[in-house]
Amino acid sequence: MDQYIIKGGVPLKGEVTISGAKNAALGILAAAIMSDEDILIENLPDVKDINVMLEAISEIGAKVDRIDRHTVRISGKDIEEISVDDEYIRRIRASYYFIGALLGKYRHARVPLPGGCNIGSRPIDQHIKGFKALGAEVRIENGTVTADAERLRAAHIYFDVVSVGATINVMMAAVMAEGRTIIENAAKEPHIVDVANFLNSMGADIRGAGTDTIRIRGVERLHGTEYAIIPDQIEAGTFMCMAAATRGDVLIKNVIPKHLEAITAKLIEMGNEVEEYDEAVRVIGAERQRHTDIKTLPYPGFPTDMQPQMAVALSLSEGTSMVTESIFENRFKYVDELSRMGGNIKVEGNVAVVDGIEHFSGAPVSAPDLRAGAALVIAGLAAEGYTTVDEIGYIQRGYENFEDKISALGGLIELVSSDREASRFKLRVVG
Ligand code: UD1
After folding, report:
1. Protein residue with least CA distance to atom 5, ligand 1
2. For position 83, what pLDDT does the model report?
């Protein structure tokens, strides 16, 4: 029964270094199998989702050589299986990137339909639309997607919804298609640019990633490369909200401040101070934050993956804030947990009305998904008294050394596996 136990009320202070971006890494790892030469990837985050992805890659026959915690060498030369095992897919949703990668390289892929975080219905119709446009025949039978193509031919693809996953997946399938593919209404998230830069470093010819039109000229083959993944925008944003909610003062290092602008702007509107440096941001929490409204949107709008963490900070602000979730319909499941801590949030449809409170009070809560789990930890750190957070496996999917990074900032948190360990923590933090 691993859980976090937290004694709240300590303003976090000091420096934290952000790890590589999980969501960029998931795309990059899948793309890495598209070459027969060695690919060296650095700044890989050491989190569960990435480790499962690496297992899936070696399961299909690619060589995976973990050089250290954050560096891996992959060779896709000896891939024998174009069929990915169901076990991995159930554990990480992004394993659907194998469809684009295997289809692009071998013209054939067999991948079970993905599971993943339960934050709403997550169709893959846009991915399939893209693969079909490139000439693949795509069938879904018994929960498995099979994509086959004699030849992949460039196409002009217009996505009906802005989708991170579909943009990356179709981009991968198109890099070795014949001719010039154009993807319109593409997603613009930083990790799309990172996957495109990675593929280009392997010899692909992708232009316009980061805008809503991506142009891809097909190449015959992809070669080896060495590549360092960008810092994790969402991990950085989580620590920014943590600094604000605990009225702390934290220097968040190894970030690209440009990627954080939507979060920075909101924290400033709320009365916090945010200083930007070349590769760091410093957040100094206000004594009492002010209310504001947020609406999640595709990049460069406010990220849906930061919605729960920001809702916690808004709960501790003066006045009433509106949080509108426009990407996923089921992303307010943490609200009931926050109520147990004294939060005052009402959800109507895709809007949460957040009435500010003076402080949370510690309570036993359970993480409903990855980002909501991180948000509950923030609430616990800002709360009076003790909070325990269950189901922390979700949090470990996407945050490297979460409790260690928080402890280094003075936060009183520990991962415990028994009541005895929890009691020992309480004795320690009281003494
Ligand atoms: C990615 C991120 C996730 C983030 C989300 C939005 C990864 C591994 N995960 O998820 O953390 O919350 O972007 O920033 O990078 N949609 C369709 N049809 C499709 C695909 C998507 O209707 O074929 C809809 C979805 O239901 C959702 C919206 O489009 O409402 C955005 O989803 P998408 O950007 O695809 O999210 P993911 O790639 O799954």
Report:
1. 164
2. 80
